[in-house]
């Protein structure tokens, strides 16, 4: 009997998280430590990947992380994670970070792509559900995710 391959939509694992910037998040220049935001990005990516794979995951890599604006005390930061591409056991997760003003307007802080791997009970890679693409935007993200996956494999092969 052939195993049924599970399929999930991008919306099924979309994850959104909010944080208020507090004094303990600030460096000596009174702006948020980049490392704290990086930790939150990794957390959102992990939660998104867990929701898609329905199990434990491990962060394998983080692609480009460019900070577009600083965050200060009392700012609200919004992080949104979504699955963009899946391999056999790996998932590419895009995490967008925004500064949200009191009027609800959001301003980009950064975008990161992380690769996470689904793990079984023995901490070995396991198959993840396929990704059901429902929009042109999701299809375009899939295609660029495939290219990023190929670039990651090439960099690994070349020792980058």
What is the tally of helical segments? 3
Query: How many strands, what sense, and barrel or not for the largest sheet?
Result: 5 strands, antiparallel
Number of strands: 7
Radius of gyration: 17 Å
Helix share bin: 25-40%
Q: Could you tell me the CATH topology label.
A: Thiol Ester Dehydrase, Chain A
In a nutshell, what does this entry contain?
The chain is 29% helix and 33% strand. With 160 residues, it is of the alpha+beta class.
Jot down its keywords.
alpha+beta; hydrolase; five-stranded antiparallel sheet; 3 helices; 160 residues; two-stranded parallel sheet; 29% helix; Thiol Ester Dehydrase, Chain A
Explain what the structure shows.
The structure is a single chain. The longest helix is centred in the last third of the chain and has 23 residues, at 136-158. The chain has one domain (8-158): Thiol Ester Dehydrase, Chain A. The protein has helices at residues 10-13, 34-53, 136-158; strands spanning 7-9, 15-20, 57-62, 76-86, 90-100, 106-118, 130-132. The strands form two sheets. A five-stranded antiparallel sheet has the order 2-4-5-6-3. The model has no long low-confidence stretch (mean pLDDT 94). With 160 residues, it is α+β, with helices and mostly antiparallel strands. The radius of gyration is 17 Å and the shape is globular. This is Acyl-CoA thioesterase. Keywords: Hydrolase. InterPro entries: Cytosol_ACT (IPR040170), HOTDOG_ACOT (IPR033120), HotDog_dom_sf (IPR029069), Thioestr_dom (IPR006683).
């Amino acid at each position: 009997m052939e195993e049924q391959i599970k399929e999930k939509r991008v919306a099924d694992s979309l994850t959104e998280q909010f944080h208020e910037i507090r004094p303990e998040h600030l460096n000596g220049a009174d702006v948020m430590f980049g490392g704290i935001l990086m930790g939150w990005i990794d957390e959102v990516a992990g939660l998104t990947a867990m929701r898609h794979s329905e199990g434990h995951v491990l962060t394998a890599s983080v692609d480009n992380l460019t900070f577009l604006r600083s965050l200060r005390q009392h700012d609200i930061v919004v992080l949104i994670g979504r699955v963009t591409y899946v391999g056999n056991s790996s998932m590419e997760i895009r995490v967008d970070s925004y500064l949200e003003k009191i009027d609800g307007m959001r301003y980009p802080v950064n975008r990161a792509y992380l690769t996470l791997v689904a793990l079984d009970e023995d901490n070995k890679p396991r198959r993840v559900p396929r990704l059901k693409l429902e929009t042109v935007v999701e299809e375009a993200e899939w295609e660029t995710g495939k290219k990023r996956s190929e670039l990651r494999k090439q960099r690994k092969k070349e020792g980058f």
